[in-house]
């Protein structure tokens, strides 16, 4: 099973708008029509292996490949 992910960056509001507020990953089953899987959100500073282990645990699947979408 192939799972795609995006890194989302949320910036702070006006007085500090050059600072990052939150940076996280969203996961999806499809590449073209990216619709995030509800309940699957992860910190973007984790390794690829940690992401795979997290997805295996949450989705209850044995074999997973992940791909980053820019």
UniProtKB/TrEMBL annotation:
Domain of life (superkingdom): Bacteria
Protein name in UniProt: Uncharacterized protein
Species of provenance: Sphingobacterium yanglingense
